């Protein structure tokens, strides 16, 4: 028995030590969640435009290209569920907020709250952005240990990125992430079909997410805040591979919402202003495309406010 316990200790000690080191890593090393949560507070006094949304606005809208102070609190795979929570958490702390931008992408309105891509992210939203998602049980051990949250391959990727660059923060202090040039491995017809198919959930049940939008809009109207719904641009290859009937329903739903007071809709999905060279991959703008898109949104907002 004593030999067994000794052997067990030889096995457990490295495991526990590895877990402890990873726990320190995830809690001590800044990342996009911690940086956005920190810097948004620094924008409370002057921010006039708050940018919500997923990776399309994370890469595609740079606050530095807006005339008035702006902040980008979007993130990769961030859904309207989290947009609403973030909006509700921060809105009353802004002193001069005039506008919010909410992207409505091909998957936004039908996105499930229980999508596998979101499962590990919810723990970081709760722990590092101070959100109460009401989706994590008190008996869930992952609630108390971030080291147990990401899949092993993602942890290895994060460790490599940190060792290579010394940080996990990918965004500026205003929340935008730069992507330079065109990645030909991901910006091509074959990849466009793969990504479009990945985004297709086969659902046109928009009710839950439309209600979230209506709740945000109602809260903004009470506070005199303008809501800009925008469908961000994509490559022609991506646009050709989505379900056109579903796309039409999304556009119709946004147009209906734009009939509400102080709500506007800008549809850039297939806008001729953007060429495929404006995109890093099949559906995300590169830095040049982001500058073009940000300046376009800025002009649109100024035309509304004037």
From TrEMBL:
Q: What is this protein called?
A: SGNH/GDSL hydrolase family protein
**Source organism per UniProt:** Flavobacterium zepuense
Q: What is the top-level taxon of the source organism?
A: Bacteria
Give one GO term, molecular function aspect: hydrolase activity, acting on ester bonds
Lineage of the native species? Bacteria, Pseudomonadati, Bacteroidota, Flavobacteriia, Flavobacteriales
Output the SUPFAM superfamilies linked to this UniProt entry: SGNH hydrolase
